[in-house]
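hey all, quick one before standup. I had two proteins in the batch that finished overnight and I want to keep them in one place so we stop losing track of which output belongs to which input. First protein below, input sequence then structure tokens straight from the run.
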Amino acid sequence: EEAGPGRRGEREAGEGPAERGPGAAFHMFVVMEDLLDKLKLLSYEEEALRRHNMRPLSRHYFALPTNPGEQFFMFCTLAAWLITKAGHPFEQPQECDDPNAVISNVLSELRSF
């Protein structure tokens, strides 16, 4: 039997969520809820958010593009906190920092793991 794009788990280029199945469009919401559960287990509200006077994340915070600048800063804040929690000192990014530099620093630090 020839392996072709119709095989299970394989996608053709340009294939959208509708072609992957009815639940594919909602997968990002499930992933976000799993992320939020894991952050809560790590006490992110007490350790990360209160320190920066930020509100807790909603169940779909990163799943829907509502305010990209705010979402990017929240991502960077959580990334810095998680890196520090893992034992690598990492300076908390500021909102006025260059986004490319911030992402470069986060990726560089993660590669050092």
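OK second protein, same deal, sequence then tokens:
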Amino acid sequence: LPVQSAITHPRPGAAVPAGELTVKGYAWSGGGREVVRVDVSLDGGRTWQVARLAGERPVPGRAWAWALWELQAPVT
């Protein structure tokens, strides 16, 4: 199953000030497979940045829950 993810912060439609923004979310892959990477686009898919996976890493083959991720990105 391809990795599925959701953004939890900032909320949809939220106004964010210019400067550094922290984007947070969660991802899952299904079938007990570990999420090893989450790519995030803040410009409609023109460019992508690799988010940092947070929390403990699961035992291989035992990844039955979501993985938390976050990305620090500049916003103009």
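Flagging for whoever picks this up: The chain has a mean pLDDT of 86. Strands lie at 4-9, 19-28, 39-40, 49-50, 52-54, 67-75.
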